[in-house]
Design goal:
With 289 residues, this protein is an alpha/beta fold. The protein is built from twelve helices and eight strands. It has one domain: Alpha-Beta Barrel (TIM Barrel), CATH 3.20.20.150.
Length: 289
């Protein structure tokens, strides 16, 4: 369905306002918070025109870890030439691998992960998000301390194997409805400290923080460990600006630690007038940065 004249004019005004915020931000000299969106290169031109800073892709579809490095070279060139850069990829470790439990498959998962990391370097993508709630989920009744140790061991091994690469892995705390290991940013701080590998850092997902009742103070505690963020409103996991949820406390915390990374819209979008929703979400977030 095509937007009516009123919707079009509202979207146009939102895009203009977002552009003004972007210019003011660039001229302010303060740390820059980049606004990204989970989308593919086929939408890059529209999203760049609206004012988004980057794309976030998926590991399987973007980095193709099962491809050889030589075969991926052409894919990497296309990613690098896209009008909007891909700054991050999520959906790292498939559910077919087991990172915890009585029979973990660390060796196979590491080979897959390292291939993805090499491809990220080739494509100029600086961050990979390690959420992978199913792969890291502990079986029912499994010793939580042992599961935590297994996940830390996997991350340490991965950190060792990618030490000479440029890509950084950011651990994503997920709410308890999605996994039973690493459910808060506060826990994430403990994991990063235990892993002690410079290529393994931390992500804050505002939706999961809201779901778990975690306050913005966790962001302040994370400080420089925090290198990437995701965002969505709590109700329906929809785009910022959909219900007008107050997200200002999280951005105040980010600015308080001098955060200069990305905040990706990882959220649902309406079936109709999606471009207007893209613009509204961007304006909403620009006003907070």
């Amino acid at each position: 369905m095509q937007p009516n004249r009123r919707t079009f004019l509202q979207a146009l005004a939102a895009a203009s306002a977002a552009g003004s915020f972007s210019r003011a931000r660039a001229q302010s000299g303060t740390p820059e918070i980049l606004i990204g969106i989970c989308a593919g290169p086929n939408q890059a031109a529209k999203l760049k025109a609206i004012g988004y800073d980057y794309l976030e892709g998926g590991v399987a579809g973007t980095l193709k870890p099962e491809m050889t490095d030589a075969a991926f070279a052409q894919e990497a060139a296309m990613i690098r030439s896209c009008v909007l850069p891909t700054r991050s990829c999520n959906g790292f470790i498939p559910a077919s691998f087991r990172l915890t439990g009585p029979e973990p498959t660390h060796a196979a998962a590491l080979n897959y992960a390292v291939n993805a990391c090499r491809h990220a370097d080739a494509a100029g993508i600086p961050y990979i998000v390690l959420g992978s709630g199913t792969a890291r989920r502990m079986p029912e009744g499994f010793d939580p301390a042992r599961g935590k140790a297994q996940f830390i061991e996997f991350c340490q091994s991965l950190g060792d194997r990618i030490a000479d690469l440029k890509v950084t892995i950011v651990l994503e705390p997920l709410n308890k409805g999605e996994t039973n290991l690493l459910n808060s940013v506060t826990e994430g701080i403990e994991y990063v400290e235990a892993i002690q590998r410079p290529r393994i850092r931390l992500l804050a997902d505002v939706y999961h923080m809201l779901k778990e009742g975690e306050s913005p103070d966790s962001i302040r505690q994370a400080g420089a460990r925090l290198l990437h963020c995701h965002i969505a409103e709590l109700e329906g996991r929809m785009a910022p600006g959909t219900k007008g949820e107050d997200l200002s406390g999280f951005f105040k915390a980010l600015k308080g630690i001098g955060y200069a990374g990305g905040v990706t819209c990882e959220c649902g979008w309406p079936k109709e007038h999606v471009e207007a929703a893209w613009k509204k979400a961007l304006l909403t977030l620009r006003q907070l940065t």
